[in-house]
Q: What sequence folds into this?
C-alpha cells in the first residue's frame, strides 16, 4: 500500500537507547538538515548486569521507562510527528532485548529499531556527515565500540560499562583488554563521538560545566587523554563525582571509557582525535524523517496510556 507524499519538512523525535544513556533529539528536518528544537540525555544504565546475565533487568528497565515517559511528553509538546527509538549494544546482547522493544512500541507508540553493529556504524556516520577516506571514526559506547574507516566498519565488545563491570577502575587491565580486540588499521587521523569522548574533551578544556559548543570540534590530544585518564583513575569515586563538567552518574564508568580511548590512540599511532557532538542520534533523526506517515488508528493498543 502506497504512502501519501509528504512535504520535505517534518518534525521528528529520535531516541538513542544506549547501554548507559537514553538520549532524545527533537528536530525540524528539512531537505536533510536538522534544526534542533530540544536535546536531552539521561544516564539510565540499561546495560547494568547484561555482560554477566545476558538479560535486561527490571530496575534498569524501570529507569528507562521513566525517561521515555518524559521524552514522549516533550516530543508531543514540540509537535513531533514521528518518533524513532534505536537500540544498540545492551539490547542486542540481552535475551529479552526484542521483547523489551516490543513493550516500548506497545506502551509508547514509538517505532523501534534494533541496530546491528554495522547499522550502528552506518547511522553514526550519517549523523556526522562526510569523513575522509583515511579518517577513523571512533564511537565508544557503554557496551560496544564502533570503528569506521572508509568502507571498513566493526563493532567490538568493549565499552565503558562492560569494561567497568569486568575490570573496575584498573585502567591498565582495560587498556590491555582493548588492545587485544583492536583490528589492524592504518588511519591518518580520527573523529570521536559519544559521551565518553565528549566528556574527556570537556575535562581537557577545563570547563566548569559542560558546553556542547566548546566541545564540538575540539582536538583532544593523546597526551591530554592520558592526563585525564591518570587524573580520573587516581580519584576515589566520590571525588570523581564532583569533578566539574563530568556528569556524576558517568563518574563510575569514565575510567574504563578513557582507557579504551587511550588504547585506540596508541594502537594506531594517533596524536589526537577531533571531537564531534553530531553522532548516531543525529543519524536517527534523519532516518525518522523517512518513516512512513502514521495512518489514523495505527498506534498500537495502549500507546497513549501512561505506564
A:
Amino acid at each position: 500500500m502506497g504512502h501519501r507524499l509528504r512535504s520535505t519538512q517534518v518534525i521528528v523525535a529520535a531516541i538513542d537507547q544506549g547501554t548507559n544513556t537514553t538520549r532524545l533529539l527533537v528536530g525540524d528536518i528539512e531537505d536533510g538538515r536538522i534544526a534542533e528544537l530540544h536535546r536531552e540525555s539521561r544516564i539510565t544504565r540499561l546495560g547494568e548486569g547484561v555482560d554477566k546475565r545476558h538479560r535486561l533487568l527490571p530496575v534498569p528497565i524501570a529507569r528507562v521507562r521513566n525517561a521515555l515517559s518524559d521524552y514522549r511528553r516533550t516530543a508531543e509538546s514540540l509537535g513531533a510527528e514521528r518518533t524513532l527509538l534505536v537500540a544498540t549494544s545492551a539490547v542486542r546482547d540481552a535475551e529479552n532485548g526484542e521483547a523489551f522493544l516490543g513493550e516500548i512500541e506497545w506502551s509508547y507508540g514509538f517505532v523501534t529499531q534494533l541496530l546491528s553493529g554495522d547499522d550502528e556504524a552506518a547511522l553514526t556516520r550519517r549523523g556526522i556527515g562526510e569523513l575522509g577516506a583515511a579518517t577513523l571514526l571512533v564511537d565508544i559506547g557503554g557496551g560496544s565500540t564502533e570503528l569506521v574507516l572508509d568502507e571498513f566498519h566493526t563493532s567490538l565488545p568493549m565499552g565503558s560499562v562492560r569494561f567497568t563491570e569486568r575490570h573496575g577502575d584498573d585502567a591498565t587491565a582495560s587498556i590491555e583488554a582493548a588492545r587485544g580486540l583492536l583490528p589492524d588499521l592504518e588511519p591518518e587521523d580520527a573523529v570521536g563521538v559519544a559521551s565518553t569522548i565528549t566528556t574527556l574533551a570537556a575535562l581537557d578544556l577545563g570547563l566548569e560545566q559542560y558546553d556542547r559548543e566548546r566541545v564540538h570540534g575540539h582536538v583532544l590530544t593523546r597526551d591530554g587523554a592520558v592526563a585525564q585518564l591518570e587524573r580520573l583513575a587516581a580519584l576515589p569515586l566520590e571525588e570523581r563525582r564532583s569533578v566539574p563538567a563530568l556528569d556524576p552518574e558517568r563518574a563510575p564508568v569514565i575510567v574504563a571509557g578513557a582507557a579504551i580511548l587511550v588504547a585506540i590512540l596508541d594502537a594506531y599511532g594517533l596524536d589526537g582525535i577531533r571531537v564531534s557532538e553530531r553522532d548516531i542520534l543525529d543519524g536517527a533523526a534523519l532516518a525518522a524523517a523517512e518513516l512512513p506517515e502514521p495512518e489514523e488508528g495505527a498506534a498500537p493498543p495502549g500507546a497513549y496510556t501512561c505506564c
About this structure: The first strand starts at residue 9 and ends at 17.
